[in-house]
Amino acid sequence: MANLWDIDKIPFVGHDKGVKEGLGFHYYDPERVVAGKKMKDWLRFAVAYWHSFNNTLNDNFGDGAAQRPYYGKYSDPEDQALCLVDYAFEFMQKLGAEYFCFHDRNIAPQGDTLRETDRNLDKVVDKIEENMKSTGIKLLWNTCDTFTDVRFVRGASTAPNRQIFEYVAGQQRKSLEIAKRLGAENYVFWGGREGWESIWNTDVKREQDHMAEWFRMCHDYAKSIGLDAQFLIEPKPQEPTTHQYDWDVATALNFCKTYGLDFFRINIEGNHANLAHHSYGEEVRTAVDADKLGSLDANQGNKFVGWDMDEFPVDLYDTTQVMWEVMRAGSIGPHGGLNFDAKPRRTSFTAEDLFRAHIAGMDSYAAGLLVADKMHQDHFIEDLWADRYKSWDTPLGKSIEAGKESLESLEKGVLDVSEKDLVAGNESDHLESVMATINNYMIEALANA
Question: What is the pTM of this model?
């Protein structure tokens, strides 16, 4: 293996070695079996092409600070894109990530016309395909960037200009063809500008009708070319638009139900959940309960900042709750994984920091898996639920749930029950003790890892 990054393959060193061991995993041991599956098969880590290799760590107030080994080597954008493929695949090999994800417009330079852009894409995809074959690294999902270019200033499939819809159709056709060629296991749709800035000048119903028809066209074309990838919608409430049509998991599920788009599952991002004023675990549970969990974008936001920070996930409460839900479902969807849609902080600008950030995220999810597994072994949450809802496991409770009761039949049993007796039936949830027990699970599970 070439050493383009000047860093060796990242080893598993164990959690008792401390940070002095240098670059190494403390909890992520890919071959370790947890609840009948290897850790790598529970987690299925993927590297995001856009944040890991294209992002310069600029922000709204400053230029990019990132230092990367391929910067300044090529003046031609096409040469840079081709060179970047080798760097990306070496990075993933050394990290031990078996999957990657990309947008069409961040792997190859965009031309003035769709035809020119497609030619640029073909050259880079040729090289990606060669690297996939030589390394065994697979494509978790790809997608269309229909939000960056000025063409999409007023939306893509929801644009008021019909010709933009036509352009998106052409771009989408090519992207689905690439998914087929590279064996994508999923295909993601994120409507960054599918929404409104002002409801006064927006025909919401008509735009949503157009978006649903676009999804049908995409699915029909995928079937026609034999693309068997799972289609995923990724919710986000706002930013860049004031209001996006895929606000959160529940909104996306309702949209699919309204338009009969039952072929979709949901790709959930942690930071997007926060922007919708939900926890990541809450959004994952909504998808799991609907049997619509598809895949996960692993990142977190800053609770004090009102925009998409895309920080690497290091919050063990988040990772434990997410992995508890994943274990309850049995997997991250039929073909899903954990894609690090995250970037290092601007002050973590060295090439080594890119490895360190991924290691932190991978270890955090591995630790979350270990804690969640211990909780599942002890039936801790399941027993909490069973005790809290035990009155529903009575004959009358089961009869209500079976739809065999009415308002009249239930009224008869409570007409003469006093407030005192009703209140006496309420038991404390002991919430503080519950959270303290979860703290103890983290300490115990990770100490014995």
Answer: 0.96
